[in-house]
Amino acid sequence: MMKKLVLTGAAGRLGSYLREPLSKMCQELVSTDIVDDIGKLYEGESYAKADVAVYDQIAPLLEGADMVVHFGAIVDEKPFEELLGPNFVGSYNVWEAAYQHGLQRVVYASSIHAVGMHKKSDFIGIDAPHKPDTFYGLAKCFSEDLASMYWDKRGLEAVCLRILSCAQVNNTRALGSWLSYDDLIQLVTRAIDTPSVGFSVVYGVSNNDRAPVDNAKASFLGYRPKDNAEQFAEKILAEAPPVDLKDPGQMHHGGPFAAVDLGESGVASMNIVNDKKTT
């Protein structure tokens, strides 16, 4: 069991599902976000309000930690100036603080939007070149390259989880892109407990029949998703409107993010259900 883990973005929807399993992997879990309170804490968990965009707020929390699980960011497309602090500078602050405090590894919530302008018909692997669909996706590219550089130059390991869509399945894209919460937990657990990872990328997607990405070159992480969105296919396809072959959102990996103008919300049209876990 590790001595200490730090989770950023603990107040978010995905963070809410990670807190309990992470608390069982270490003696001390420090959860952090920008809200005043995250409610009842799990055994061994403490909460610290901090802004990842401010180095002096986030860095002290990493002292004595083994690893940091970095999920803290704005999780939508916004004007570049709004994303600059949380999504760009925030990543630098986490990696630099992790290096300064001698952490072994950063586990990072990257996104399919780092490669979102690849065509969905291209069965892309983890070595697909960056092709961001938004400023949000650009921040993921920046953070992945930051992770690669800190491994090459400073020996700080990282696993970048290119999450596709971790939300309830309510559209045709999600039949391929779905990542269940149970598989999310398995993915993060493997990113933590694999003995050596160097710099690694893995797609965060469940074992969907229609998965549009290839994790073969990340198989050493031991991530073997169990859930399959095909269970929802009959209902979703029966209710789906006809495919528009001229819609970039339907033809590219980034979905709606591939279709919006830069700076405009990609989440607005996605009808994401906020089924955040409550303790």
Automatic annotation (TrEMBL):
EC code? 1.1.1.203
Output the InterPro entries linked to this UniProt entry: Epimerase_deHydtase (IPR001509), NAD(P)-bd_dom_sf (IPR036291)
Q: Which UniProt keywords apply?
A: NAD, Oxidoreductase
Q: Which SUPFAM superfamilies match?
A: NAD(P)-binding Rossmann-fold domains
GO molecular function terms attached to this record:
uronate dehydrogenase activity
| Stretches assigned to the NAD-dependent epimerase/dehydratase domain | 6-163
Q: What is the superkingdom listed in this entry's lineage? A: Bacteria
Signal sequence coordinates = none
Report the family membership: Belongs to the NAD(P)-dependent epimerase/dehydratase family.
Q: Name the chain's protein.
A: Uronate dehydrogenase
Name its species: Sulfitobacter pontiacus
The organism's taxonomic lineage, starting at the top: Bacteria, Pseudomonadati, Pseudomonadota, Alphaproteobacteria, Rhodobacterales
Q: Which gene encodes it?
A: udh_1
